[in-house]
């Protein structure tokens, strides 16, 4: 027979834990001394205790383990296996969530430490009115988002005829009323031929501060934030109500490429 102290030593668990398992009916002794109330366990109980302690270390609750014992699963390796595999899947899912959280935290640390890939010295450009032909997305009436618009547009861009700059495409951000935002992915053209499902739009003459974003387009929003929060005030530039432009030329490679570059044209007051 084995005492509580001996079990505690074998499994490196406290006597208090073993007494608690007895109190809740999870792991009970085969004998209790009549005079001293000492608990005694048989060697045959050791595999059961090992499984209980293992399942507890895996995060399973006492109620779950007690139910496994009640229905005979705790002592049946084949019945226990799918339960362990299911729990392992839950652990993997949680690890994935924690890894995403860790990556987000690290990204924020990096964001605090860097300038977001923005060229601190903007160029002032007065650009004449021009016409684009392309496909439109609206934040209130269209499905998906801007990346999905480009996914639909790129396979059809060869349908646009008479491109004035075939290697330069535009993302035109058009603010509307009541929080509306339209976005056109397109090329500068004469606007005489409009493919089915596309539109033509004339961007008015505007004065722009031109910044260069470098890196993944996932951080484009951070660059825009820095432009409005930091770089425009730093250069005593005041944004005006107008249309932002994203200009994609030969420097643009892939959306996730850390070396890719696009120019951001921000309307400012002259």
TrEMBL record:
Positions of the HTH merR-type domain: 1-71
PROSITE patterns given in the database record: HTH_MERR_2 (PS50937)
GO BP annotations, alphabetical order: regulation of DNA-templated transcription
InterPro entries reported in the protein's UniProt record: AraC_E-bd, Cass2, DNA-bd_dom_put_sf, MerR-type_HTH_dom, Reg_factor_effector_dom_sf, YobU-like_regulator
Gene Ontology molecular functions: DNA binding
Highest taxon of source: Bacteria
Pfam families documented for this protein: Cass2, MerR_1
Protein name: HTH merR-type domain-containing protein
Annotated organism of origin: Paenibacillus tyrfis
């Amino acid at each position: 027979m084995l005492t509580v102290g001996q079990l505690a030593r074998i499994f490196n668990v406290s006597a208090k834990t073993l007494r608690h398992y007895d109190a809740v009916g999870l792991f009970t002794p085969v004998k209790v001394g009549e005079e001293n109330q000492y608990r005694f366990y048989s060697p045959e109980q050791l595999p059961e205790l090992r499984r209980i302690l293992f399942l507890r270390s895996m995060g399973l609750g006492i109620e779950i383990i007690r139910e496994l014992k009640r229905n005979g699963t705790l002592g049946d390796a084949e019945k226990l296996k799918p339960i362990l595999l299911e729990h392992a899947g839950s652990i993997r899912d949680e690890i994935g969530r924690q890894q995403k959280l860790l990556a987000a935290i690290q990204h924020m640390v990096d964001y605090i430490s860097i300038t977001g890939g923005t060229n601190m010295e903007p160029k002032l450009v007065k650009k004449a009115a021009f016409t684009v032909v392309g496909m439109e997305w609206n934040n209130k009436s269209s499905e998906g988002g801007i990346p999905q618009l480009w996914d639909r547009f790129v396979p059809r861009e060869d349908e646009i005829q008479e491109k004035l700059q075939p290697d330069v495409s535009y993302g035109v951000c058009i603010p509307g009323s009541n929080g509306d935002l339209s976005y056109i992915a397109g090329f500068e053209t004469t606007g005489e031929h409009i493919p089915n499902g596309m539109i033509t739009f004339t961007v008015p003459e505007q004065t722009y501060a031109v910044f260069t974003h470098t890196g993944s387009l996932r951080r484009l929003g951070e660059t825009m934030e820095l432009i409005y929060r930091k770089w425009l005030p730093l250069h005593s530039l005041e944004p005006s109500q107008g249309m932002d432009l994203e200009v994609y030329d030969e420097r643009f490679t892939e959306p996730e490429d850390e070396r890719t570059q696009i120019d951001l044209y921000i309307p400012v007051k002259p």
